[in-house]
Design brief:
The structure holds two protein chains of two kinds.
Chain A (H helix, E strand, L loop, with lengths): L1 E10 L2 E10 L4 E5 L6 H9 L6 E6 L2 E2 L10 E4 L11 H10 L5 H14 L15 H13 L5 E5 L7 H18 L2 E6 L2 H7 L2 E6 L2 E4 L5
Chain B lengths: L3 H47 L2 H9 L1 H34 L13 H18 L1 H4 L2 H11 L3 H16 L12 H26 L3 H8 L4 H12 L1 H17 L2 H6 L10 H10 L3 H28 L9
Classes of the chains: A alpha/beta, B mainly alpha.
């Protein structure tokens, strides 16, 4: 479950005032809105990497507003993947498990599961600068899912991808939602993507969030 | 109506004019740098012309010169290591102090952010003081500091420490070898911090923020995500601190003195030779300094370029 209660935050001339949102557990929520309306800022506030001025952030029914980032247990995939430049693909995926001191055998097992789910066999020993846009996003997804976070925040993960890769990644996201039983908040400005993937859709407009009707 | 051949001629002319304009632009831009380069090369060549290889060899046979070379190399290396130990964490802190998520909790309010910004600005300014202060002032300030009760206590404590670890000849800090290191670090660390901070400023913070969401501690983010990307900047900071230490003179003169075979480093050898009218000796010592500086600069460039694999961040 993800919930925002009367969230206010500002940076420079940009601000969000009294924004509220509730995504039930297991939903695939889509957050739409025009470029620059604050979608990314909102996701970063949920993850804890963007400070807020007022309001509350609740995850799994707990108030996490003042929790540090690491304690929130959210899988986060930024727009460009933000992969670690000096780590191989397998090291990136294992990172979240290693920092938790998960035992080696379980790490390998989880790596194999994700490699299979996201078809990463051939690129495991590559560095990020040797990956295509679609591969980068798949690696970022695997890295975010590795520690089985329960909540996944995706910031325009399919933008800037060609049509074929876009279709392929849409399929992966759908299967991840079904297999991993995660609550997903997916930010996009693409309506087709929203209809394809979302079980519930929201629109952020002029600093307010509204639930979109099913037929839109 | 313009015919096709005429259009071609016009286009050739405009292309030639553009090439001429570009040539003037690049020539103009290069001329400033070339003049400066000419000045540097001329100075070095003049030194080499003034002192012949025989003078150099003779100087190297002199026990006093060999001592000052050895002491310079030793103190510069210790100072550069100490400077980098100070610079890397401080540079990272200054770069990330106001970064959301990093350097603090995500829920920090607007007032907190403003306060952090002000603290960063103040600390940043204070750390630049050794860069702008005249070197002699740094030396005098160090000397005065070690005349205070705290300074005297530190001086005595350092003397006891060195005696305990088997260097009874070093009786404290002031006018001893540790004074040379302290004087060099005071200036060298400021340059190294600036380089380290610029390095971390150029590194994308988003992977570090993602690492936090993956459950990493601030230390793990620093050591496993940020630091491996900053290695080239670290080498640059080390080199800069080493080179600054090698050329340091004013603070050493005041704070460590110029005792022969005790606190005499290469820069003080140049000064002493010049002071006693031995211009050739001063030039020879300068040439040794120049050669050491060039060797270190070239080695650093080779290390940083040689390790330039695609996966590394280009810093």
């Amino acid at each position: 479950m993800i919930e925002l209660r009367n969230l206010s935050m500002g940076q420079g001339t940009f601000s969000l005032q009294q924004v509220s949102l509730r995504v039930e557990a297991g939903e695939y929520a889509i957050l739409m809105g025009e470029t620059g309306c604050g979608k990314t800022t909102l996701v970063e506030a949920i993850c804890g990497i963007r400070p807020i001025d007022q309001g509350q952030v609740l995850l799994r029914e707990s108030d996490v507003t003042h929790w540090p980032v690491a304690r929130r247990q959210i899988g986060y995939v930024p727009q460009d993947g933000a992969l670690f430049p000096t780590m191989r693909v397998d090291q990136q995926i294992l990172f979240g498990l290693q920092v938790r001191n998960v035992e080696q055998r379980k790490c390998r097992q989880r790596l194999e599961e994700l490699v299979e789910t996201l078809s990463l066999e051939k690129i495991l020993s590559r560095y990020p600068n040797r990956l295509s846009g679609g591969e980068r996003q798949r690696v970022a997804l695997a890295r975010a899912l590795a520690f089985e976070p329960g909540i996944l925040c995706l910031d325009e993960p399919l933008s800037a991808l060609d049509q074929k890769t876009h279709r392929q990644l849409t399929g992966y996201l759908r299967s991840i939602h079904e297999r991993e039983s995660v609550t997903i908040l997916h930010v996009t400005h693409n309506l087709n993507e929203a209809i394809d993937l979302g079980t519930v859709r929201f629109r952020l407009q002029e600093g307010r969030i509204e639930k979109m009707e099913q037929e839109s | 109506m313009v015919t096709e051949p005429q259009t071609e001629i016009q286009s050739d002319r405009s292309a030639a004019a553009a090439r001429r304009r570009d040539w003037f632009f690049w020539s103009g831009m290069s001329s400033f740098g070339l003049l400066y380069l000419l000045l540097i090369v001329s100075m070095i060549l003049a030194d080499f012309q003034f002192a012949n290889p025989a003078d150099l060899l003779e100087a190297l046979r002199d026990e006093r010169v060999r001592f000052s070379i050895g002491l310079s190399l030793l103190t510069c290396t210790i100072s550069a290591i100490l400077s980098i130990w100070i610079a890397i964490p401080t540079g990272y802190l200054l770069s990330r102090l106001d970064s959301p998520g990093l350097g603090g909790r995500g829920g920090r309010g607007a007032t907190g952010r403003r306060l952090f910004g002000a603290v960063r600005y103040l600390v940043d300014t204070l750390l630049d003081i050794p860069i702008v202060l005249p070197p002699l002032v740094i030396g005098i300030s160090l000397l005065v500091l070690f005349q205070t009760p705290l300074g005297r206590f530190l001086d005595d404590a350092a003397g006891s420490f060195f005696s305990l670890v088997g260097f009874p000849g070093i009786r404290g800090i002031t006018y001893e070898i540790p004074a040379i290191v302290l004087a060099q670090v005071t200036v060298g660390a400021a340059f190294a911090i600036r380089t380290a901070r610029d390095t971390f400023d150029q590194i994308d913070r988003r992977p570090e923020q993602v690492a936090l969401t993956l459950g990493a501690s601030q230390f793990q983010v620093f050591s496993r995500v940020a630091l491996p990307q900053a290695w080239r900047g670290g080498v640059a900071a080390f080199t800069l601190a080493w080179a600054r230490s090698l050329g340091e003179f004013g603070p050493i003169l005041i704070f460590a003195g110029t005792a022969r075979m005790k606190t005499e480093v290469l820069s003080t050898t140049v000064y002493l030779n010049f002071q006693f009218g031995n211009l050739r000796g001063a030039v020879v010592a300068s040439l040794i300094l120049v050669t050491l500086a060039i060797v270190v600069l070239v080695l650093t460039r080779l290390i940083t370029l040689g390790g330039n694999r695609g996966r590394r961040a280009s810093l």
